[in-house]
């Protein structure tokens, strides 16, 4: 089984989709959750993970220099021997101190085409610009902001989506399906790099 370290800063709906996929979905017999980690000890997603029986860990990032925090977070995560580090609403830009130990094994999900929109508030961007479609993107993480190689993309129709809440509802439904499926094919294709 591939060992997943799932990282989050907030709600944790993608984390939950991944956990469920390891239990009864496309990741069953392919992956297990080694740890759910947060840079915010009070993140709702961390409590949700614990309630679903996942090992959890937290290290507060507030007020800490980026490189110092990233080195400590990487060291903590390495104790769980993850094959993949799976960012699921982990709202931090990663420095090389974090990326180097897991290079080529860090995944992120972004609620837009990373060639068109980077960073926060991608659903607001799609809504405000009245896009008729956005593309959910799963990509490998490098040191840029949403610049790493794309692993999978799936379009979401935004036709008739009259509110931001509706845009998010449609997008998240695709996120929750695309992320486990992309990870499953990555594992099946033997691209585990350690
Ligand atoms: C998701 O929509 C995810 O794609 C996005 O944050 C949300 C987290 O929700 N990530 C980014 O915007 C990264 N740039 P969740 O905590 O319910 O999974």
UniProtKB/TrEMBL annotation:
Reactions mediated catalytically: N(1)-(5-phospho-beta-D-ribosyl)glycinamide + (6R)-10-formyltetrahydrofolate = N(2)-formyl-N(1)-(5-phospho-beta-D-ribosyl)glycinamide + (6S)-5,6,7,8-tetrahydrofolate + H(+)
Active site: 110 (proton donor)
Entry EC number(s): 2.1.2.2
Binding site for (6R)-10-formyltetrahydrofolate: 66, 91-94, 108
InterPro entries for this protein: Formyl_transf_N, Formyl_transf_N_sf, GART
Keyword vocabulary terms for this entry: Purine biosynthesis, Transferase
Domain Formyl transferase N-terminal: 3-183
Residues binding N(1)-(5-phospho-beta-D-ribosyl)glycinamide, per UniProt: 12-14
Site (Raises pKa of active site His): 146
GO biological process: 'de novo' IMP biosynthetic process
Enzyme class name: transferase
Family, per entry: Belongs to the GART family.
Function: Catalyzes the transfer of a formyl group from 10-formyltetrahydrofolate to 5-phospho-ribosyl-glycinamide (GAR), producing 5-phospho-ribosyl-N-formylglycinamide (FGAR) and tetrahydrofolate.
NCBIfam families registered for this protein in UniProt: PurN
Name assigned to this protein: Phosphoribosylglycinamide formyltransferase
Organism from which the protein derives: Hymenobacter montanus
Lineage of the species this protein comes from: Bacteria, Pseudomonadati, Bacteroidota, Cytophagia, Cytophagales
Gene from which this protein is expressed: purN
